[in-house]
Each structure stands twice: as C-alpha cells, then as structure tokens.
Design brief:
Blueprint lengths: L6 E5 L5 E5 H4 L3 H7 L19
Antiparallel strand pairs: 1-2
C-alpha cells in the first residue's frame, strides 16, 4: 500500500496553489469527503476555493 502524503495541495479558481498539512484540511468535512478514501460518498464534490491575494 502506498504511503499517504503528509500534505495536500489545494488549488483556487484563480490558479493559486496552497500546500497544507493533511491533518489541517481534514478538519473541514467538505474537503475530507473529497480526499478521504474511506468516505461513504466517493463522488467528487464541486468546491470553489478563491484566494484573496493580489
């Protein structure tokens, strides 16, 4: 079995990439359901992440 990365990369609608600790993003039920292989709902969840940089 492949080792799961300690980090997750979130990409905003405007192309910014955020590398975040997996433990931190798993706090969000929405993101958890998208990346957790044990999730009961395997279908992708549309998710909009906008950065407010610039």
């Amino acid at each position: 079995m492949a080792e799961v990365s300690k980090y997750v990369t979130l990409i905003s609608n405007d192309g910014f990439e955020f590398v975040v600790l997996r433990d931190a993003v798993l706090i969000s039920p929405v993101i958890k359901s998208m990346i957790d292989p044990k999730s009961e709902d395997p279908a992708p969840v549309p998710f909009s992440l906008s950065s407010h940089l610039g």
